[in-house]
Amino acid sequence: MKTYRKLATLVLSGVMLFSTAACVGSEIEPVVTTVTQSATPEATAQEVDAPKETEKPKAAAAPAESVSQEQARLSAESYMSWGDFSEQGLVDQLKFEKFSAADAEYAVGTLDVDWNEQAAMSATSYLETMAFSREGLIAQLEFEGFTTEQATYGVDSAGL
């Protein structure tokens, strides 16, 4: 991961303050270096580029996912490519396939999914194949693991 620095210069009473912000990932850490007016431009550049005591060392990279986590994630992605699932319904499906609860929750947590939209697609799919009352369809979606709010959103989106 690269570190980017932003440099700002402020002159107050003959003292130059160089403020840098070292950006590593999403963290921004201000670093202030004071250089008197008698400093040469070369020394000033060295001061700014030198590592600061207040800068944190780079964080170690996050450990790679385990093989079982990868397999659970790939299975979750596969299910999401062809079906409408609630978050809990997908976790339950992965656990049914004998993935551990931790791997199933990890896998589902890696997905970028709008669960409200999943509820809307599921509600629409149900209404294309059978008749439901509004409350009956909400109950069906809740049975599949959607929250009450997601189920209600789905039914509203389907026009019922």
Describe the overall structure:
This protein is α+β, with helices and mostly antiparallel strands and 160 residues long. The protein folds into two domains: 4-49, no CATH class; 67-157, no CATH class. It has helices at 41-49, 67-82, 87-96, 101-110, 115-129, 134-143, 148-157; strands at residues 4-12, 15-24, 27-36. Strands 1-2-3 form a three-stranded antiparallel beta sheet, with helices on one face. A hairpin with a 2-residue loop joins strand 2 (15-24) and strand 3. The longest helix is centred in the middle third of the chain and has 16 residues, at 67-82. The chain is elongated. Residues 1-40 and 43-48 have low confidence and may be disordered.
Any chance you could write out the topology, listing elements then pairs?
Elements: E1 4-12, E2 15-24, E3 27-36, H1 41-49, H2 67-82, H3 87-96, H4 101-110, H5 115-129, H6 134-143, H7 148-157
Antiparallel strand pairs: 1-2, 2-3
Helix pairs in contact: 2-4, 3-4, 5-7, 6-7
Largest sheet: 3 strands, antiparallel
Uncertain stretches: 1-40, 43-48
| Cα Rg | 27 Å
| H and E order | EEEHHHHHHH
The portion of residues assigned to helices is 40-55%
Structurally, the number of domains stands at: 2
Q: How much is the average pLDDT? A: 75
Number of helices: 7
Query: Biggest sheet, strands in spatial order?
Result: 1-2-3
* Number of strand segments: 3
Strand content: 15-25%
Structural class: alpha+beta
